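Problem: given the chain below (131 residues), write out its structure.
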Amino acid sequence: MRGPLAPSHVPIAKSRGERFDDLVLEAVDRLKPRWGTQLASVEFAVEEVPPAAELVDGPARLSSDPIPLGRAESALGDEPAAVVLYRRPLEARARDREQLGTLVLDVVVEQVASLLGLTPETIDPGYDDRH
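Solution.
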């Protein structure tokens, strides 16, 4: 058994999930200067895939995309508002880490906009430039 690594050793590589979590945190940090007060009580989370209940097919589906990339939940009772991103569907759509970062940012912006009842362009003026 080895002891802890000293700082001069090669750092342990982050897992794919940890790298994804970092992208979500970067996206949230980008919004905090402008929306920090509104986001202070919002929890941000990552799930691997959407729950089966969100995989609606047929005319009841609200989106043209068969697999949702995230969801926003309003505060309910003691439960805080939440924005949840789905890691695997987002990773499946990105050809590289840069595009994944952009997709994550867009989904965070879209879900925050939904939660606050605003447009994505209001939440992040750069949103328009990416679309």
